């Protein structure tokens, strides 16, 4: 049994549709306030965030640090060598020590079980900043970006088609989890010779019956009608020894202008969680082209994550 009584943020499938909607609306409000650059808007004043990362990061670190500090809070960031989670110190001990200093713990890990153990023993909310299993902060932020771009926040993704092209990794699992909570069309193209999407997440999305989910082995089979074409690296962090081998499986899978045109719509946008490897999963032309919204997408990490923190911390302090 888990001693923790805190509410954590580990996966999208534990959120209700109502909570997803509330987080989205809160993110819009926080973004508007942040853009005002008001020195008065400091909802996190007096709160401290502890961040433990066992993999590299630009966006996740920057968005939490800049966002939380801008809104009045303090942040400590631990690089992999500092804590050596589970090596120098047991995960459950790290959880209990950090809970004594911080109001929330943000953790990026290899094995998702480490996050679950942190959450189990932490007295404060634990937030998943990416594991090999999923990356919920990214996909929740992408929901903000897509609804902003298509001006459809009231309907969220209803009526939209998102097509993911590439490796069936942590990002796909989070997309499937979102598809199990709110309705939209999700197309996934992954090479047949690599791992299929996470079976449990796929079943969850299908049995929920809200979204149409199509899995194919070639991008051409799912791209038609896509509003969003989404890419990620072909080799995720922690899997670099497979890189050469993987390049073979992805021959011809680069999202270039010709591939993007397969959607048949000139309103399609290109998204990528970043970092991107130009010339591999996406061409430089598409990254830099008019359909790419990857940089507003990166910025929105901050606003959605502050909304998630607001939601988790509102009981800890009466947040304005
Ligand atoms: N997309 C994303 O999580 O980026 P980082 O790995 O740089 O944090
Ligand atoms: N799938 C990638 C996402 C990086 C943000 C990885 O896990 O490395």
Automatic annotation (TrEMBL):
One of its GO terms (molecular function) is ornithine carbamoyltransferase activity. One of its GO terms (biological process) is citrulline biosynthetic process. Residues 158-311 form the Aspartate/ornithine carbamoyltransferase Asp/Orn-binding domain. The keyword Secreted does not apply. InterPro entries: Asp/Orn_carbamoyltranf_P-bd (IPR006132), Asp/Orn_carbamoylTrfase (IPR006130), Asp/Orn_carbamoylTrfase_sf (IPR036901), Asp_carbamoyltransf_Asp/Orn-bd (IPR006131), Orn/put_carbamltrans (IPR002292). Keywords: Signal, Transferase. The keyword Metal-binding does not apply. Residues 8-148 form the Aspartate/ornithine carbamoyltransferase carbamoyl-P binding domain. Its EC number is 2.1.3.3. It comes from the Eukaryota. Belongs to the aspartate/ornithine carbamoyltransferase superfamily. OTCase family. This is ornithine carbamoyltransferase. It comes from Euglena gracilis.
